Amino acid sequence: MTAVFLSEPAAPTLRPRRESRRIDVGSVPVGGGAPISVQSMTTTVTADVEATLRQIAELTAAGCDIVRVAVPTQDDCAALPTIARRSAIPVIADIHFNPRYVFAAIDAGCAGVRVNPGNIRTFDDKVREIAAAAGAARVPIRIGVNAGSLDRRILDRHGGRATASALVESALWEAGLFEEHGFTALKISVKHNDPLTMIRAYRLLAQRCDYPLHLGVTEAGPPLQGTAKSATAFGILLSEGIGDTIRVSLSAPPVEEVAVGHHILAGLGLRPRTLDIVSCPTCGRCQVDVFELTKKVEAAFRDFPAPLRVAVMGCIVNGPGESREADIGVSAGNHKGQIFVRGEVVRTVPESMIVEALLEEALTLIEDAPETQSG
């Protein structure tokens, strides 16, 4: 079904996107004004090809645009050709410690390679060869600088601390090594576990280069903490036009990272909304179990075929107003619910029929709405 955009979009409030050069990670353009992509990383042992491919399929179904796989061993290298060939989305090989694996990943047909020269032994001596191999294969490279693995020479110059300036100096030094050999198909990240340090680092980096930037708060933590850190940092940077691709790092299944990433982008108007539930946090005025009702509505609309804003409200103070502002909504109380469609009450149903009524009205709404081509 063609996307039907029912709710009036909010007026744009973000700064224009930072101008950056474009690279192509397989079929996905990054930078140069391309849509911001959502990335994640598999948690499987890469050498277990079938398990890794199953997880990539789950990530693809969740809306992941680019996936990264860890390559710490020769067995993982040996698995890359099959994984790269069978994955439905571009695969980036994540390389640490052994530069030989970079060449293996390029030969395997990976869409990109991530390197952290702070973690690759004798990297300085291999840049010419890596640049030549990646350039010949048209494979971009991400210079991924992390606070926990800065090059010791740079870390020492900053008093042993992974400051924002140290992260940026490391990234630009490493980019310069490639530039000396005419290779500029680079993407850069400067990740830190502290959102404020990470924000400062990306602001500095954005001023000093035009490479596309991959945003991330590294080791962000468990789902609640990691989501809050990432949403804060990404929201600030993306609102300033900084960032071309993102990864939400959570101590959780990677499909959760993708879901959070999509919600962050949708909340900023950088991706079309799908299901947007407006629900009250509840208080002593509520006469219905809003928590349970919201869960049921979310489950019922999970695979809904069009973008929709649904209000689930539980009292007479804000309920009617919020329900009128949504595409459809319910203001519930006294064991019944008033069902709103585009600002008008269309019927009142028993509490037990609220979810069914909302779904019926939503389906009728998209059948009657004129279809518009997105994008």
From TrEMBL:
[4Fe-4S] cluster binds at C280, C283, C315, E322. GO terms for molecular function: 4 iron, 4 sulfur cluster binding; 4-hydroxy-3-methylbut-2-en-1-yl diphosphate synthase activity (ferredoxin); 4-hydroxy-3-methylbut-2-enyl-diphosphate synthase activity (flavodoxin); iron ion binding. Pathway: Isoprenoid biosynthesis; isopentenyl diphosphate biosynthesis via DXP pathway; isopentenyl diphosphate from 1-deoxy-D-xylulose 5-phosphate: step 5/6. One of its GO terms (biological process) is terpenoid biosynthetic process. Its cofactor is [4Fe-4S] cluster. Gene3D superfamilies: Dihydropteroate synthase-like (3.20.20.20), Sulfite Reductase Hemoprotein, domain 1 (3.30.413.10). The keyword 4Fe-4S applies. This is 4-hydroxy-3-methylbut-2-en-1-yl diphosphate synthase (flavodoxin).
